[in-house]
Amino acid sequence: MSVFTEAIVVFGAAIIASVVSAKFKDVLDKKEVGDVLKNLSKQGSIASDISKARIIAVQAILDAAIPGSKIYKRFVIYLNGSLIYSISKIAEQALKSSPEEKKSKTVVGLMLGEKLKKASKAQFFLIAAFVINSLMSASGLLSVAFESKGSSLVLIIVAIAFLAIHIDHMLLEYRIKHGLYGNNEFEAREIIEFIISHARKDDFNDSGGLKKVIPTPVLDLNLNKENSTDRGGVSV
User: Distance between CA 122 and CA 107 in Å, rounded?
Assistant: First the structure.
C-alpha cells in the first residue's frame, strides 16, 4: 500500500470515527433523543406531561418514516440523533403554538420524517457498500491492482457521504432550535415542494381535521390536570 493510499485510509477512518463519536454524543447529551429511546424500549419514565405529548408526536413521525423492528429504529435513531432532536423540537413548538401555527409545524414535522426516511436509506446503502467492499478485499475477490485503490476509494466516499449527511442535520438542528428554519428562500422552497408533492387532501388531514401527528387532545387533557393542582398559577 502506497503512502498516498495509507493517508486516504487514515483520513477516511478519522472522518468516520469523528462522525460516529458525534452521533453517540447526540444520544448521550440530548434529553429529547434519550426520551425517544426510552419510550421505544419502554424503559424508564418521561417526567412531564408536555414531554409525554412531545414523545408521542415524535414516535408517530418515526413510525411513519421508519417501519420495522425496534432494533432497526434504535439503530436509525443513533445514526440520526441530531435529526431526531430537530423533530422533537418541532413537535414541542407545535404543542405550544396557535392552531394556525400548529398546521405549519405539522407539515414541517412530516417533512423532517421524510428526510429521516431518505437519510436512513442512504446510510444503509453506504454501510452495505463499505461492508461488501471490505469482505471482497478480505476474501481476495478484488484484483490485486484494484484492491488497495478500490478499497480506499470506497472508504473515502462513505466517509465524506456520512459527514455530509451529519453536517446537513446539524445545520438543520441549529436553525430549528433558534427558530430560523423556513426564513430563507431555499427552505421556503423545500417546504412548498414538499406540500406540492403531497397535494392529496389525506396527506395532511384525517377525517377533515389536522393529521394526528401532533396530539393536541393529549396535551390539553394533561394541561387541564396540571392547572387543577396548586403550582402557583404557573402553566406552560
Answer: 23
Q: Which residue from 34, 80, 37, 35 is spatially nearest to 172, judged by alpha carbons?
A: 80
In a domain, 214, yes or no: yes
Amino acid at 51: S
Q: At what angle do helices 81-95 and 70-79 cross, to 10 degrees?
A: 90
Domain that residue 117 falls in = 3-220
Q: Is 233 left (phi over 0), alpha (psi -120 to 50) or beta?
A: left
Q: Is residue 230 part of a domain?
A: no
List all residues 6 or more positions away from 204 whose beta carbon is below 8 Å from its beta carbon.
103, 106, 107, 110, 195, 198, 210, 211
Name the residue among 137, 123, 157, 132 with its Cα closest to residue 11. 157
Query: What percent of the chain stands above pLDDT 90?
Result: 17
What local confidence, expressed as pLDDT, does residue 230 receive?
43
Contact 89, 32 (CB under 8 A): yes
pLDDT of residue 172: 93
- Residue 95 pLDDT level (bands cut at 50, 70, 90): confident
- Give the total number of structural domains in the chain: 1
Read off the pLDDT of each residue in 90-96 and give the average, rounded to a whole number.
Answer: 85
24 lies in a domain?
yes
Q: Are 225 and 235 in contact (CB under 8 A)?
A: no
Say if CB 212 and CB 56 are below 8 A apart: no
Residue 144, pLDDT above cutoff 70: no
Rounded to whole angstroms, the Cα distance separating 26 from 166 reads 11
